[in-house]
Amino acid sequence: NVAATGATFSTNNTTLTNTSTGTITGRGTIDVGTGTLINDGVLSPGTSPGTLTINGNLMLTSGSKVNIDIQSPGLMQGTHYDFINVTGAVTLDGILNVTTIPVFAPGAGQIFNIMNSSAAIAGDFTSKNFLGGVSYTAAPVANLYQLTAIGGSSSSSSSSSSSRSSNTTDIINTVVSDQNRIRQAVPDDDGEHGESKKPLIAPQCT
Fold first, then answer.
1. Contact criterion met (CB below 8 Å) for 139 and 22
2. Which end of the chain is more exposed for a tag (fewer CB within 10 A), N or C?
3. Helix runs in the chain, H state only
4. Which phi and psi angles does 137 have, rounded to 5°?
């Protein structure tokens, strides 16, 4: 695990795989450049809520789990609800878990754009779970992934895969198949970004 404020992980244009036991969470940037972030684990943007930027392409596999939090008043991406900002192409699959944090009750028809890409989003989530008593329609709309509140109650699902830390420190935790291909760029004392001298360690995720 790596903890940093506003961290950027760069793979030097190499495809990065988040394995089935891995978790990517927090605010910051994962820079795969011309490569692709392949997510087979948990993708949980923000620190409840927040924005995770993926510089490159994003591909979610059938084993992928994406966790999104929405809180009152639900007006601003990255502030009131989680947002995944992808600069490249997006292909969807797997599970979407949306938690509406009590006691927020969005009005019927209120829209939340939780993801964007550089082109029309391909595919869709095969399973969509809405937690917190609010139901949504959920579908890609051109280059956005859009949630629209429809009101009413929805049953809780046990497929929600991760809890969010209340720590105010911005964190990106990631488990990857080849940790030696990644370097972490973190702010130096003078505000400039430099390359960390510490090796990344793939943890055992719970």
1. no
2. C
3. none
4. -85, 145
pLDDT digit string (tens) for 153-184?
444 443 333 334 333 333 344 444 444 344 44
Cis amide linkage into residue 203, ω under 30° from 0: no
- Of the chain, the end-to-end C-alpha distance in Å amounts to 12
Q: What is the pLDDT of residue 46?
A: 86
For residue 76, what is the DSSP state?
S
DSSP classification of residue 153: -
Q: Cα(110)–Cα(176) distance, rounded to whole angstroms?
A: 36
Residues 115/78/155/91 CA torsion (nearest 10 deg): 20
Residues 52, 82: Cα–Cα separation, whole Å:
8
CB 60, CB 39: distance < 8 Å: yes
Question: pTM of the full predicted structure?
Answer: 0.74
Sign for the pseudo-dihedral over CA of 177, 180, 181, 186: positive
As a whole number of angstroms, the distance between CA 160 and CA 63 comes to 13
CB-based burial, 118-135: b 16+ in 10 Å, e otherwise? eeebeebbeebbbbbbbb
